[in-house]
Amino acid sequence: MQNTNNKRALLLVDHGSLRPAANESIESIANFLRELSPELIVHTAHMELAAPDIPAGIARCVADGAGEIIVHPYMLSAGRHATEDIPRIVEENAPEFPQIKFRVTPPLGIHHKLAEVVLERSGL
Q1: Are 66 and 14 in contact (CB under 8 A)?
Q2: Which domains, and CATH codes, for the chain?
Q3: At a CB cut-off of 8 Å and minimum separation 6, what does 71 contact?
């Protein structure tokens, strides 16, 4: 089935925590992204320990009309979750939505702007 929907979605995926406040922080980032790119569908998911999980996040993006879902591991390093688990879970769930294009990005990793944030948070 050909997908005629051009809407793009960004699914932010963090590790997940048993602490609700930790899980809520990714929603704050999602809200900033919605402000910066109002045309973008933005949802969040957790790798483990909390809901929504990745399949539920994918389903939310599809329900909102996404034709493409960009899954971003909201993690600092390219550890196992970012490089293996998240791509595997996306690949396992993609066949349920054959009309949707999926892409998994690298994690946050090393970036000059992250260094700026460290200095700012350190009061330097």
Answers
A1: no
A2: 8-121 (3.40.50.1400)
A3: 11, 13, 54, 58, 86, 90, 102, 103, 104, 105
Residue 3 has pLDDT above 80, yes or no: no
Distance (Å, rounded) from C-alpha 31 to C-alpha 38? 10
| DSSP letters for 6-43 | --EEEEEEE---SSHHHHHHHHHHHHHHHHH-TTSEEE
Tokens of 50: 């909390």
Identify residue 45 by its one-letter amino acid code: A
| pLDDT per residue as tens digits for the range 37-84 | 999 999 999 999 999 999 999 999 999 999 999 999 999 999 999 999
Helix axes 54-63, 86-93, angle to 10 degrees: 50
pLDDT of residue 2: 46
